[in-house]
């Protein structure tokens, strides 16, 4: 049986954007705050697919970059979203006062490629088709410190159509346009949804 966690976070207010120019640092951007969490672990009980994903993340020494959600759980689990049952992985991209927009952008694309490839390498053999999720979703967060972050967006792989799409955070669109964050992608849509 699949472990289902549902997070519908609405009405979060982001601080207004600071003035942004090409040389500005990402840290000057909007932030959400989490309550401090003492520990953050992967789910203990999971199905075969989640076990394989978590194992792949651990074997690639990527456990420290998995986003810790508001319940103190590393974000590798299922979400029910718009009627779909989706596998979600949350990636924290660390930023600080010295992180430039170009460094942030390069890290984003590096992580986008890494996790797209990681999902391709997950062995789904011997998992019944009806037990596979509708989509695989990689969510990206700018992690400022343990308690502050901003939502970047998500990469969605539709398991039925075998297609990828990127959805950016509407609240960060002005910033993302100014630093041309998504300029290497064919198309990007935007959404107000925020999961953490």
Structure description:
The protein has 196 residues and is an alpha/beta fold. It has one domain. Helices cover 20% and strands 26% of the residues. The chain is built from 3 helices and 7 strands, in the order E-H-E-E-H-E-E-E-H-E. Strands 1, 2, 3, 4, 5, 6 and 7 form a 7-stranded mixed β-sheet that branches. A hairpin with a 2-residue loop joins strand 2 (76-81) and strand 3.
List keywords for this structure.
26% strand; globular; disordered N terminus; 7-stranded mixed beta sheet; signal; 196 residues; 3 helices; alpha/beta
Condensed summary:
This protein is α/β, with parallel strands linked by helices and 196 residues long. The chain is built from three helices and seven strands, in the order E-H-E-E-H-E-E-E-H-E. Strands 1, 2, 3, 4, 5, 6 and 7 form a seven-stranded mixed sheet that branches.
